[in-house]
Amino acid sequence: MTLSANWGVIATWRMAWEGVSEAANLLQANKAAGEAAIHAVKCVEDYPFYKSVGFGGLPNERGEVELDAAFMDGTSLAIGAVAGVRNIANPILVAQALSRERFNSFMVGGGAEEWAQAQGFERKEMLTERARNHYLKRKRETLDRGLSPYTGHDTVGVITLDTQQNLCVGTSTSGLFMKRPGRVGDSPVSGSGFYADSQIGAATATGLGEDLMKGCISYEIVSRMGRGMSPQQAAESAVYDLETRLISRFGRAGDLSVVCMNARGEYGVATTIDNFSFSVATPSQPAAVFLTARDGKHTLIRPADSAWLEAYQQRITAEVIQ
Amino acid sequence: MTLSANWGVIATWRMAWEGVSEAANLLQANKAAGEAAIHAVKCVEDYPFYKSVGFGGLPNERGEVELDAAFMDGTSLAIGAVAGVRNIANPILVAQALSRERFNSFMVGGGAEEWAQAQGFERKEMLTERARNHYLKRKRETLDRGLSPYTGHDTVGVITLDTQQNLCVGTSTSGLFMKRPGRVGDSPVSGSGFYADSQIGAATATGLGEDLMKGCISYEIVSRMGRGMSPQQAAESAVYDLETRLISRFGRAGDLSVVCMNARGEYGVATTIDNFSFSVATPSQPAAVFLTARDGKHTLIRPADSAWLEAYQQRITAEVIQ
């Protein structure tokens, strides 16, 4: 993936496409990487049919939506993050605000909710009827039968590079579907769910947070780019090395998927699964969705065709029968 | 620091000395690194006069003690962590239990408290009269006058190496004194507060969590050891590189202190402050406390003499007048 670009935006999953398109417009108009990343993540949080982020996100085992989000400015290295927060319309905006604080920049649970409310961030019931139906169905099929309920943990992670060569990254998720109340994954965790250094590059991850945290995958990818690897080399080598380590040491590896971008706007993608999609835009690549397939220690990339995109839209809006 | 050792234990601060002594006895008797690390951290949590960890820890701005802890097994890479939990006697035991979980291994706030209670972990009012007096005094001197209240953020981090060459690390803290409710630092965050890989080494940090997280300092130190640096080289170069990056990019750097140990039992220490102490024991070094002083890009180490040790004991047990 070598592109000559003076701006760029890449994000995990198809769900980021609309946000990536709008972020691309902002970046092309010389807006700041931070503004573009926040805008893109907010688009995903606000869309009710994306069931793993923000409004419409799937709840924990008790039926409550608990959200995690983070923002990192790769120029100042400032980080803000929230975890396990309920009833906040846009966790990414709280994370952005916290990144401006010298102290108390990572906040969790009730304390984070109170602070966000005191600061005037919009409160909102985040559980939709649709997400509730998903929950009731899953609960009946798993918990009520004594089976493991865990499935689904798609985080949106957006990396932006502006024309001033600033890199930023934002993440947001409702976390592992059917998680225990209070469970936090990699998304708000520096170095695991995200990392950005404007002098090198940025990376963001999605998959099983418990396993991504065992390898500090985003920091590792940025480190590898810093030692001279291309984004694609860094992403593939770091992801498959971590998978190998997890299997040999922990006995198994959950889903691991990443996107990254260097300070020149070149990007890389790697995944251990077969249905990972991502969204990207650069001066030479209008906002588009790509699909990936694993091929040994490599990740193959192909454009999503219109049939796939239509099937996706049908699937996410189809009726959910409890 | 080159030692020929087939076991070892090193920990941040003087407060770990008793725990390090007992961990050394366990390791010498061929007990597992995990058991020794947990035991050492628990000693610190239980001692009422250590005011930044566990029972007797200093509270948040509302006068509530909120605790963070983590445990990592460097052989399996398993991690368990809790953050922002109240009224739990030994957060490190909850972290250890969570490290055995495939899912939901990092838990925060009320959800973590409920899980710990359901699992039968001891509940305890963690605010002592002494810590309350510290709080009231500090509040009167700062918050009540509109001044910044932040000071004090000493985490205990204990690294153990057993005779089977397993490395483990445990951390525990009451976090930044006068923090906002819900604030979480680096201590429960993989790669920032701690990291361990039994094939390479382990590291743990103390200082301003907000800044330690900007550099994933513990993961970086283990990476440097993995690329061939001695523990002392890895600790010093990583800490002073991060300090330089923080000053040039973020505009300032908080306190940064680390200890690390490699898989051969050699250890390293680095700090940006002048009063950092640590506790260590190996087959050739009975459990002892050392003091450090910064010298440019190096950290000088000297044994704590009996006068210092006595003054310490006097200081931590002296009456606190509100």
UniProtKB/TrEMBL annotation, chains A, B:
Pfam families: Asparaginase_2. InterPro entries: Ntn_hydrolases_N, Peptidase_T2. PANTHER family: L-ASPARAGINASE, N(4)-(BETA-N-ACETYLGLUCOSAMINYL)-L-ASPARAGINASE. This is N(4)-(Beta-N-acetylglucosaminyl)-L-asparaginase. It comes from Cedecea colo.
